[in-house]
Amino acid sequence: MANTVEVKQRTPHRDESGGPPGSPRRPAVISAAVLLVAFVAIGGVLCFLGIFVRPASDDFRFIVIERRDGFLGASSFLYSSLTGRVGNGLFVGLAYLSPDWGLRLTPTVALLSLAVAGALLAHALLARAGAGAHPLAAPLAGLGTAVLALVMQPRAYHTLYWTAGVITHTLPPALVTGLAGVALLARSHRARLWTGAAAVPVGVLLGTTSETISAAVLILVVLAGIGQPVFAGRATWPPAFGVVLGASTVVGAVIVLTSPGHAAALRQRTHGEALVSSRVLADTVATWEKALSHLSTDAALPAAAAIGFVVCLLARTHRPIPAGRLLFALVAAGAGVLALTFAVMWELRVGWGPGGWRFYRAWFAFQYAAVLVAAFYGYAAADVLRRLRSRADVPRAVACAVCVALVAAACTGAAGRVRHTATAMMHRAAAFDAQSARAERAKRDGARTIAIARLPIANLAVPFEKRRGPDWLAPLIARYYGLASVTRAPGNHRKSGRPTGHPTGGPSSGPTGGPGPGGGARILAPGEAKIESPARALPARPGTVSPGTAARPAPSGRGGLAAGR
C-alpha cells in the first residue's frame, strides 16, 4: 500500500484536457515564443534608430537652457515663464545632461519603460488571478503592448524619438502603469507601506508633468471607488493606494495651476473663449467621435487582444474570473478609455482651438490605455472560451495561429511607415552632422554668422517660419552653435518624404493643413496623415512652447492650456 501511494504521488497529474501535462499549452507556448522574438527584433530596430536622432525644435531650447542654468534651469523656466510643469522640467534636466547620449537613448528609454511597466502590471494581475502563468506571459504582454502602442501611434516619431514629446506623453503613462503593477504586487504590510510612501512623490511628479495623466489617474480612482463597495464591501489595498496616488496627483496639478507660467499660458490662449461653453463642448464631442473612429480602425487593438488571448492560454491552471467581476472590469475598462479620450480632446480644444485635435502626439495617453484594455479583452475572451470547452487541442492551435496572424498583420502594416521614418532620420542625421561640422569650422575661423539648412523632421518646428511671426528657433540654433546669428541657406527647399506633394494635403501639408514650409513635403512620422481634416491647428508664441508642443510661434502671442499637446 505504501508503494502504491508513493507511485500515485509520483504519477504526473493530468491536466484539464486529459493529456500529458503542458500539452494543451504547447500551441500557446510556441505562439508566445514566436511573438516575443518578433517583438524583441522590432524593439531592437526601433532602439537602434536612436543613433540617428538629432536635435529638433524644442531640443535646441532646452539644450541652451541646460548649458546656461544647469540641471534645474528647465524647471525654473517652465514654472515661471511657460506652462508651470515643474516635473516636466526635472525630466528635461535629466535628458539633456548629456544631449548626445540623451537624444540617442530616448527611444530605448521610452520602449523599455513601457515594456517593463506593462510586464509588471500583467504579472501582478496574473498573480492576483491565481492563473499560474507561463514565464513568457508577462514579458509578452509588456513588450507586445509597448511596441504596438508606439509603432501604431499617428505621430510615432513624436512619442518615440523626440525627447521633449517622450517626456510629456510617453513616460507619464509608463510611470502610472508600472506603479499600479507594483501596488498590486505588494502583499505584506511593509511592502504596502513603502509603496504608498512612494506614491506620494511620484503622484506629485506626475501632476506637475502632464495634465492628461492627472485626468487618467483621477479616472482610475473613480472607477476603483465604484467597484470597491460592489465587490469588496470593505476597505482594501488597491482603492486605498489609488486615493493616495490621486491625492498626490491633484497636489501636483494645483502646483501647475497656481504657477506664473500657467497664468501666462492662460493669458495667451488662442481664442479667449471660456474653458467650458456650449461651443467648446460641441467641438469636443465632434473631435471625440473622430478619435473613437480612429481607435475603431486601429490595427493595434486586435493585435493587442490577440496578445491577451495567448497570455490567457499560457496559464497553467484555469481559475475563471467570477462573472460579476469580469463584467464590471470589462465595462469599467471601456468606460475609462472613453472618458480619457474625451478629457484629451477637451484639453486640446481648450488650448488650441477647433484644430487642436490634430496634435496627434497627445493621443498617446488614451491610445496606450486602449491597447492595454484590448489586451485585457483578449484575455477575458480566452477565459470565457476556456470555461465553455477545455478540451480539443486543434481549436486551441487554430486560435493561436489566428492570434499570430493578427499581430503579423499589424506589424506588417506599420513596417512601411517605420522604414520611411528611418530613411528620413538617416538623411537628416547626415545633413545635421555635416552642418554642425561646418558651423564649428566657421566659428574657429572667427565667423559670427552662418547660413544653415532647415532640416525638417516629422512636421516639427523649423527655423525661418516668418510667415508665422517672429522666428524663435533660429536664435536658439545660433546659441546652440555658439554664434551670434544664423541665416537661411540660399535655395534651401529640400524636399523629403514623397517626391511630390500629397494630393489630399495630408502627408505633405504643414502644421495648419496647408503646404509645408519651403513649398516641399516635410519629413513626416509614420501614419501622420491617418486622419484628414481641413481643421487648422492653431500655433503658439515662443513663450508658450513646452516639451511636446508644436513649437510654432504666432504673431499675436498665442498659447494654450493644453500647450505641449
From TrEMBL:
Residues 1-25, 489-565 are annotated as: Disordered. Keywords: Membrane, Transmembrane, Transmembrane helix. It holds the Pfam family DUF6056. Residues 7-17 have a biased composition (Basic and acidic residues). Residues 503-521 have a biased composition (Gly residues). The keyword ATP-binding does not apply. InterPro entries: DUF6056. The chain crosses the membrane at residues 28-53, 109-129, 136-154, 160-186, 215-233, 240-259, 327-346, 366-385, 397-416. This is DUF6056 family protein. The lineage of its organism: Bacteria, Bacillati, Actinomycetota, Actinomycetes, Streptosporangiales.
